[in-house]
Amino acid sequence: MPRYTLRGLLISITAIACGIGLLRGCYIGLTHFESAENVERVSWLPPAASNISYYRSYNFTAYEFDISESEFNRWIWLDVEPITQPVKIYRYSHRTCANPDFGPNPSLAELEEWEATYRATVSDGLYYNNRRSNGGGVTVAFDRTKGRAYFQTNPR
Q1: DSSP 47
Q2: Residue ranges of the domains in the chain?
Q3: How crowded is residue 129: how many other Cβ atoms within 10 Å of its Cβ?
Q4: Could you tell me which of 140, 141, 89, 144 has the C-alpha nearest to residue 116?
């Protein structure tokens, strides 16, 4: 019959507790998110940013905010290029709004409204897109017409 010592039992319990703690921490880190709409300031964007809306999590992060083009250029660290044809970028609301039930025959206006809720279309401004083969990457756009920046990233 095997003998168990108090020391061995305490080491086993400690190892199990640490394992559970690590798993819980990973689970929270992968499932926790924060979002807000139309806030004036956040600490992780430049002071010139205003009217900020965002969704931030491990799997999907998107934010948009009002900013001048000169302040945007001062803030952005990526090599943005002028937009030559309209581009689309996922918005924060891609994760915060429920999918609508259009029924069997949605109108073109309903589909266009849904599209505008989930993705911004920018025709005049600056753009950067770097997507990996697995779908992960980063996309940034600045809309000169609206004076609004869009940023979306995900790891996968």
Answers
A1: T
A2: 1-31, 35-154
A3: 15
A4: 89
Other beta carbons less than 10 A from residue 28's beta carbon: 10
- DSSP-derived letter for residue 44 is T
Which tokens hold the place of 130?
A: 């770097």
pTM of the shown model: 0.75
Phi-psi region of 125 (alpha: psi -120 to 50; beta: other; left: phi over 0): left
Q: List pLDDT tens digits, range 127-148.
A: 999 999 998 999 999 999 999 9
Would you give the DSSP letter of residue 72? H
Task: Collect all residues with Cβ–Cβ distance below 8 Å to 76 and sequence separation of at least 6.
Answer: 126, 128, 140, 142, 149
Alpha-carbon dihedral of residues 70, 52, 97, 86, nearest 10 degrees?
-10
- 83, 85, 84, 90: which is closest to 120 by C-alpha? 90
